[in-house]
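Q: Hi! Curious about what MFS transporter looks like structurally. Here's the sequence.
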Amino acid sequence: MPPRPTAPRSPSTSPSSPPSPSPSSPPSPSPSSPPSPSPSPSPSRNPYRLLFAIPGTRAFTIGNLIARLPMGMFSVSAVIMIAETRGSYALAGAVTATGLAATAVVAPWTARLVDRHGQARIAVPATAVAALGSLALLLCVRLGAPDWTLFAAYAATATTPNTGGMSRARWAHLLEGDPARLHTANSFEQAADELCFMFGPVLAALLCGALFPEAGTLVAVVLLLTGVLVFSAQRSTEPPARGRTEAGVPSPLRARGIRPLLVGFLATGAVFGSMEVVTIAFADAQGHRAAAGVVLALQAAGSCAAGLLYGVLRLGGSVERRFLLSVGAMVPLMCLPFLAATLGGGGGLVTLGLALLLAGMATAPTMVTAMTLLQHRTPEGRLNEGMTWAVTGLLGGIACGSAVGGFVVEHASSPAAGYGVPVGAAVTALLIALATARSAPFPAPLKDGPSTR
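A: Let's find out. The predicted structure is below.
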């Protein structure tokens, strides 16, 4: 991504007269310029502690985590709520699929408005509309409204802003010109994604089961609104609004190298979607369907641990080379669940859980390097939109992977055969990455970023 113009000098400072070294009058930060990051981390210090020493980062991270947790709750809550009250998993799946399709259409448009007008001005009203959609769904289910109203209500939730993308955009703004700490920040954000999608479904199932079917949706709405309000209130770390993009600046979809990355995100999402459906079917065949959530949580836990560790490492070479290595590692690791399910013997879900734990460790490095490449290749002022297209690709891949995984499980002789679908999706992602690398000089000229401005 090209460097942004540096902040203008203070009126009291001129090129011929250096600024006063007095520490008693530091320049006040403005919303358009990020707070000055602390000095570059030394190898002996915790890079995450140094990351959150930057003023304002803890506050926006807390708000973002609160807002991001419901992302793993809404779909599970909707399925449980509709299935228990209407007695149809088919209807529940169709409603959530409609919401997914609506999100794929609306989310990039919402992100474009965020880039143009600022995070706070767009995220808060967009979240309010999405919250009203979730509450409307709750009321329609509770009051026994016709089925079509469920589809209409859940489609309104598509305006939910990409909170993870907005957080990554803040880190990119604050750490511009510091690729080492931006790498750590991206790794933390990926680990946070895994944590939210690990605990979100568990919390949703617990609330719906222990209280009432609508409890999961209701709590998720409260958390989403609270988190977005806290996050948006942190104005000192918010990237500046870009206004209308200048003529000649391409859309992220037209920028060089973006579309192959998005196809890679689609294939990676198919890994996630198929793994979830196949694991539930396999656990059901073993007579332990309730344990499927715990087994899938192990995959997220492996990815979370790998993400945090990856953020500490200082790896050399180009980002594109590391991306190829990460996707290449994902292929053999995704073979482990297939082997555990087909050759696990009497181990059953225990062996499968260990295999998923190891398989998940390939996810975070792949996502971190892919997001870093996306940040470099997205045109100036379009970062939220570019990252939202990545999320759209992931969601589309999850939907396709779920459909293909479900079809294979239903028609194969054994549910274990379904684990061939995530392996095939991982191989597809690797082939896309290799084809992209061959279309440009290798080693790729793209590096982590400039070490100086």
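A: A fun detail: The domain at 56-244 is CATH 1.20.1250.20 (Growth Hormone; Chain: A;).
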